[in-house]
Design a protein that fits this description.
Helix content is 37%, strand content 20%. With 676 residues, the protein is of the alpha+beta class. 39% of the residues are buried.
């Protein structure tokens, strides 16, 4: 995949992950499983590793959760509640073990002691006890600030109100979850009473805990296990296994299904054993968590970005099943991209019924040699969201369907609007070229209102489809023309929700310039490029008036993206839509930070290469920009400085060849500290 297509896929993944984050953390209405979410996140991590200059500080890979919902009060955590890096198989567990040894300065055959714990499929929680009494309870939220669910947690019998011999202040971290049998009984009761049933125990736990009425939580069969504290020194312990024992001694419930593993072989054996036992456990798990047992070594290893280096979530491998392809349907995206989706005979894969799987594009269909009617192997969990692994050609009916062609199926017309379809230069995907296609409009409105764009809280997929189908919205500005009555008359939207939506729309008009530019959906312009444009031009008018040459001079833009931006603003329909948004009250502004004149990097061109261990690539770029420097993507005679991390390659070699000054990450950070 080239850089251009990588940027497009990264933008798509970020938008999709942002949407699923909102559904999962803020609305308790996830549309995909945790494993499917992990697959999307893992794909994004892979692309950002291949193209580190495309990684941004606000990428889902750099975040822990999502912002706390407005309906709850906020509580700041005593210490950040971080997420974990994932391993998807035994080989990745061993690779992590090797990294731990390398980072700890140990020999390759050293046997580090790990504690293996079960990765519960529930909702993370922090309890704060002061002088032994439960004072507050908060969800993970964004890792720094969570939602105040104290009243609800007090109703959970497994959570002690008072601890035995507790330190003056203690933050206990754990998981609120629901046992399988309790979940099944609750769902049966919900169905009998005509109430909404839950898709799985995790959804049920999250939906039960995040209620405004504690009586609802009290009626749900929630329980909890705890596994960490904000500061182990408060419990005078030096080992993770001892910490767990001390939590139990305090009166907190702790999972007995854990093991001290002496070396990676025992850790891998624990992983295999729990994979085999998972179906027999009384609760859902999706993997095991391995932690360095020595707490002093944990501190030495430290953290990177959103995760500790000393722990890893080892997810269970994908499960596969055989089924049949009943049909191949074509879906239309925001930019008109036509995505083929295999409709499958429903089949249980990893405990979840799978009935469809994306086929991405015609090239993927050709690679699989896939035909309607084929028996296929599908998988989910670990690696990808439901996908077709291979067609069972040996089981194919010799007089069955011919090879599938999107063009032939559609007869050259969009399945939604019957508009003309075709391909853009150097692209695999087919697209609908009708600017009035309703399917494109739905996706465009969803993108415009998404969290990383203008962020219209509460405007989800179903509402967008309703307003488009009813003809109420034909462009983003129409959202701001709708009245209270228009919103309140929509299906399943009461007066309070309609009022909340009007308030969210009003708040969205305060969107910064970079978010506004991103929301417009300009081809090739993701969040990073939007920020670069905002920094370079400072106002919407200046961006709209910029020439191709001026745009191409902006870092990370280049001639292809510059032409795309210029074409967008030159289009009369786009110009009219922007003017309509401004008339609706949008006033996108931008404040660029100006570095001091004596900043060590003022006016200098800096290139990053290799893997940085203390900063993400985007954090380092942000530090360069804040210090008045320019973060360039390639080394040339104009480069002033190269910062070389681990495994630096061709850029380092070129810098040495040109005689460019080269420093390491520690020296880079020290340089920035000089004037901080």
């Amino acid at each position: 995949m080239d850089r251009k297509n990588a940027q497009a896929r990264i933008d798509q993944l970020r938008a999709e992950l942002g949407r699923h984050n909102r559904l999962y953390y803020e609305f308790d209405r996830p549309e995909i499983t945790d494993a499917e979410y992990d697959a999307l996140l893992r794909e994004l991590e892979g692309l950002e590793s291949r193209f580190p200059d495309l990684r941004t500080p606000d990428s889902p890979t750099q975040r822990v959760g999502a912002k706390p919902a407005e309906k709850f009060a906020k509580i700041s955590h005593l210490a950040p509640m971080l997420s974990l890096q994932n391993a998807m198989n035994e080989d990745e567990i061993r690779a992590w073990d090797a990294r731990v040894k390398r980072q700890a300065g140990l020999v390759a055959d050293a046997a580090i002691e790990y504690v293996g714990e079960l990765k519960l499929d529930g909702l993370s929680i922090e309890l704060v006890y002061r002088h032994g009494l439960l004072e507050t309870a908060a969800t993970r939220g964004d890792g720094l600030v969570g939602e105040d669910v104290t009243a609800n947690v007090r109703t959970i019998r497994a959570v002690p109100r008072r601890l035995k011999d507790s330190p003056p202040e203690l933050s206990a971290r754990g998981e609120i979850f629901m046992n399988k049998v309790d979940f099944q009984r609750m769902n049966e009761r919900q169905e009998e009473e005509g109430q909404r049933t839950f898709a799985n125990p995790r959804n049920a736990a999250a939906g039960s805990l995040r209620q405004l009425d504690p009586a609802i939580t009290a009626a749900r069969p929630l329980t909890a296990f705890f596994y960490a504290v904000d500061d182990a020194a408060k419990l005078a312990t030096e080992r993770q296994d001892d910490l767990l024992a001390k939590l139990a001694a305090l009166g907190l419930p702790v999972n007995a299904d854990r093991r001290v593993c002496r070396g990676v072989d025992e850790a891998a054996a624990f992983y295999r054993e729990m994979h085999e036992r998972r179906r027999a456990l009384p609760y859902e798990i999706d993997g095991v968590v391995l932690k360095v047992n020595d707490l002093a070594l944990q501190q030495r290893l430290g953290w990177v970005s959103r995760s500790p280096r000393w722990a890893i979530a080892a997810k269970f491998p994908a499960e596969q099943a055989e089924t049949a392809v009943l049909d191949i349907e074509i879906q239309v995206g925001r930019t008109g991209a036509l995505t083929p989706v295999a409709k499958l005979a429903p089949v249980k894969v990893g405990g979840v019924t799978v009935s469809s799987a994306s086929l991405h594009n015609q090239d993927e269909i050709d690679r699989l040699d896939l035909r309607i009617g084929d028996r296929v192997i599908v998988q989910r969990a670990g690696d990808v969201i439901p996908e077709v692994v291979r067609a069972l050609v040996e089981k194919r009916d010799p007089i069955g369907h011919a090879r599938f062609s999107i063009r032939q199926k559609l007869h050259g017309r969009c399945p939604m609007c019957r508009g003309e379809i075709g391909q853009l230069a150097d692209e695999v995907a087919l697209r609908c070229f009708n600017p009035l296609c309703p399917a494109k409009l739905v996706e465009r409105i969803k993108h415009f209102a998404s969290k990383n764009a203008v962020d219209v809280d509460g405007l989800g997929d179903k509402l967008v489809r309703q307003v488009v189908e009813k003809g109420l919205v034909k462009e983003p500005a129409d959202l701001y023309r709708l009245t209270f009555t228009d919103w309140a008359n929509l299906e399943r939207l009461g007066d309070k929700s309609a009022q909340n939506l009007l308030e969210a729309l009003a708040a969205s008009k305060e969107a910064r310039l970079d978010r506004f530019l991103y929301a417009l959906g300009i081809r090739h312009v993701g969040e990073v490029t939007a920020r670069a444009l905002a920094d370079a031009f400072g106002s919407l008018d200046a961006v709209r008036a910029a020439t191709v040459e001026e745009l191409a001079a902006v870092p990370d833009v280049g001639p292809i993206v510059a032409q795309s931006i210029r074409d967008f603003f030159a289009d009369a329909a786009n110009a009219a839509q922007i003017d309509a948004l401004l008339a609706a009250g949008f006033r996108p502004t931008w404040e660029k930070r100006v570095a001091p004149a004596d900043s060590p990097l003022a006016g200098k061109t800096v290139v990053l290469t290799g893997t940085l261990t203390r900063l993400t690539r985007d954090e380092a770029k942000a530090r360069i920009l804040a210090a008045g420097g320019k973060a360039a993507g390639s080394v040339s005679a104009k480069t002033d400085l190269v910062v070389a991390g681990e495994a630096a390659g061709s850029k380092l070699a070129k810098a040495e060849q040109l005689g460019v000054k080269i420093i390491g990450e520690d020296e880079f950070l020290a340089l920035l500290q000089e004037k901080s």
